[in-house]
Design goal:
47% of the residues lie in helices and 4% in strands. It is mainly alpha-helical. The protein has a two-stranded antiparallel ribbon. It is globular, with a radius of gyration of 16 Å.
């Protein structure tokens, strides 16, 4: 079971962090800020794919262009959604709430020791035990793995070379948000100018 301390409903944790007790813990922020990290301000989509998404999926034993595109699109969509459509209480670039994070560990990883060990290997050795939810904000590989498991927990199956509009539909149906549509996914994908960089090498 994932042991956590309670958080205020609707609270968002973004890239702004403070250091306490040698571990990174979320900074207190007004709920009115309510924005997840704008990841495109930190790195271009192609770099996010090559430096984080692909290596993380490979570590988990997943080699799939569709999986890469789904996670990259999820990242882009989450960053560009207006506040009223963002996941409630979302943390980090994928906007994953503490409740969903706990559910992934308690209901999915608790029954799969090998997978749980892999995911735990991405987290901090000691700080994870103090504040596991903070990993969603500052540990990009860990957050990417959890985002992938959100789809896997719901038995989402991907075919090879799926179209972006098909992935957008999966995101609309299975990923947490508040009334967002597949068109939000598509718009963020187009806005990122990503059409020429998503091909599987």
């Amino acid at each position: 079971m994932l042991e956590t301390s309670p958080r205020t409903e609707g609270e968002f944790v973004t890239a702004s962090m403070t250091l306490t007790h040698e571990c990174i813990t979320p900074a207190e922020q007004p709920a009115s800020l309510g924005n997840t990290i704008n990841i495109l301000a930190l790195a271009p989509p192609a770099l996010l794919r090559e430096a984080v998404i692909r290596p993380t999926l490979s570590y988990l034993g997943v080699v799939s262009s569709s999986a890469e595109n789904l996670l990259l699109g999820t990242l882009l969509a989450t960053a560009s959604l207006p506040v009223d459509k963002q996941p409630r209480g979302g943390i980090g670039p994928y906007g994953i709430s503490t409740q969903l994070h706990t559910r992934i560990w308690d209901d999915y990883l608790a029954t799969n020791a090998d997978q749980a060990s892999l995911i735990r290997g991405l987290a901090s050795q000691r700080c994870f035990l103090q504040n596991p939810h903070a990993e969603l904000g500052y540990n990009f590989a860990y957050a990417t793995a959890i985002a992938w498991l959100i789809y896997r927990q719901q038995l989402v199956e991907l075919e090879d070379e799926m179209d972006i509009d098909e992935l957008a539909q999966l995101w609309q149906t299975w990923y947490p948000h508040r009334g967002a549509l597949s068109s939000d996914f598509m718009t963020s994908w187009d806005r990122a100018g990503h059409w020429e960089t998503h091909a599987w090498p």
